[in-house]
Amino acid sequence: MIHKERVLKALSKEQPDRVPFFFWAAPEFSDKMMAHLGFTDRDQLLEYLGVDFRFVEPTYIGKSLISADKKTKKDIWGVGYSKMKEGDNEYWNADMFPLQGVTDPAELDSYPWPTVDLFDFESLLAQTEKYKDYAIMTAPGYSSPGLFRIIQRLLGREDFLDVMMSHPKFFEALCIKVTSFYMEFVEKMMAVAGDKIDFIRIADNFGSDYGLSISHEIWESYCKPAIEAFIAIPRQLDIKIYMHSSGGVRKLLPEFISIGVDLLGPITPKAKGMNPADLEADFGKYMSFCGALDEELLLRNGTVEEVKAGVTYLLETMSAGGGFILGPSHKFKVETPVENVIAMYEAAKAFKY
After folding, report:
1. pTM value > 0.90
2. Inter-CA distances, 4 with 8, 255, 320, Å
3. Domain map (residue ranges) of the chain
4. What average pLDDT values come out for the chain (353 residues) when binned by 10 residues?
5. Does domain 3-58+103-350 have CATH number 3.20.20.210?
């Protein structure tokens, strides 16, 4: 069974030859793991682990976003990052929020918003041909449409809620700017490769460890209309919807189902209401689940044997009858032991229904 068939069979609530595998990691972790294994590119790593998904995205062709000294960078939205170092580990930290302190809607008209001209959408054709035997998903980052995660970075996380509640006209105008970009971005992607992409990844975080971080009113006013706009064309093309939202989002699952979400991840088992077995029992007829292997406590801090036992227990709980994709509950962090991640996939390969 090829990778694509395995994933799509699982999402059809049929039991494939083995549970499909997902891989989601900080770039620094992927680099560390490739160096550990002696690999020179990400595809070698994914093939070694048996991962069934591949990410695709249009090539960025705009001006360089990284400074000449490689110590700072900006993303396509103008958010600034600095290279940080802790011990042997390096990572990018967001520290410049370009719309922080801005509350006048008129100022948004002169802001340098990203445009689709920054991307070569034709580059998707070579990528989708290369990965035609895999389940193809739009990549994390700029190819995963989102709303609040973008606005939080533009405003600064500390100011986000205050601006939303105290300056609703400005906040609504900001939502329109972000949504409009992604509607055009998705339209361009779908026009070029819509018949070759299996999943569009929608990425926003609506929960914390303690439950929902937004109200039903906010969902209805801002989030739901934006997501429905993002997925309108993919739905027409029968592309499956992967909703990325970590944390305790159980109360939103009926909403996700109603708008057509096929796969929810990464399931965060330690968050309120997110026990994988309970989710499967209550919602498994209507959607599938991805993730659920604890990254923070088990993968980062457990032993190899504890990781293998955790994988076995999770698959015994979730794998029968399809509808489940194994992955981490959060992206692998740079401090996560490589040996534990290898053990995770080895234990899954050895698992028998």
Report:
1. yes
2. 6, 27, 19
3. 3-58+103-350
4. 97 97 95 96 97 98 96 97 87 95 97 98 98 98 96 96 96 98 98 98 94 95 98 98 96 97 97 96 97 96 98 96 97 95 98 91
5. yes
